[in-house]
Design a protein that fits this description.
binds magnesium ion; transferase; 193 residues; PRTase_dom; binds orotic acid; single chain; binds 1-O-pyrophosphono-5-O-phosphono-alpha-D-ribofuranose; two-stranded antiparallel ribbon; alpha/beta; Orotate phosphoribosyltransferase; Rossmann fold
Length: 193
């Protein structure tokens, strides 16, 4: 799939929002990719994740035992990508602020790829990689549907993105005036009770 085809799926799903958004990293942005509006359509999710699975296969990362995704946003694309790769899918979720694999067993030495929905700074992917390494897993790579950093994010391992889409993001104390004039909303789940 081309970048334009991926973005067209987001656009036709009403998933490209404009306003003033507080991102998971704390950065602020005038654009938010509300992936949930894509994932509500199983056939659109299938098209994107099948293409992501093909990219992962083409990267020749060696055997993959599991996909692990950070909740919430990563769960649906992780599951659907796992279906196309023929491997099980698991997720990490926050407990006391830390991402943990609360519901699954993971053998030491298991080869894992981390699948995210959207990567902005790579912070959530990095947290997932570190949690898995602490359990003895071998993280062979990260993958996502859209990389908002266009290659700049540091996930701790190589990142395979179905599409790169550079979107501006600013520290909260360095907002352009047109962004500062809008009320800020935080659509993601990090920091929710
Ligand atoms: O690369 P980063 O700077 O970490 O940003 C990307 C992360 O932000 C979103 O998650 P969020 O924590 O907002 O919650 P969600 O998964 O429930 O949407 C998204 O799902 C990624 O996990
Ligand atoms: O950085 C984020 O938190 C983020 C950006 C985005 O466009 N979409 C999303 O779900 N999260
Ligand atoms: Mg997330």
């Amino acid at each position: 799939m081309t970048k334009d085809e991926v973005l067209a799926v987001f656009r036709e799903s009403g998933a490209i929002l404009e306003g003033h958004f507080i991102l998971s990293s704390g950065l602020r942005s005038p654009v938010f990719l509300q992936k949930a509006r894509v994932f509500q359509y199983p056939e659109r999710t299938e098209i994107l994740c099948k293409a992501l699975a093909e990219r992962i296969r083409a990267a020749n990362l060696g055997p993959i035992d599991y996909i692990v995704s950070p909740a919430l946003g990563g769960i649906i694309p992780g599951y659907e990508t796992a279906r196309h790769l023929g491997v099980p899918a698991m997720w990490v979720e926050r407990e006391g602020g830390e991402l943990r694999l609360r519901r699954f067993n993971l053998e030491k030495g298991a080869r894992v790829i981390v699948v995210e929905d959207i990567v902005s700074t790579g912070l959530s992917s990095r947290e997932t990689v570190n949690a898995l390494r602490a359990m003895g897993a071998v993280v062979v790579g990260c993958a996502c549907l859209i990389d908002r950093s266009a290659g700049e994010a540091d996930c701790g391992v190589p990142l395979i993105a179905l599409a790169e889409y550079k979107v501006p993001a600013y520290p909260a104390d360095a907002l352009p005036p047109e962004l500062a004039a809008l009320p800020a909303v935080k659509p993601g789940s990090r920091g929710l009770a």
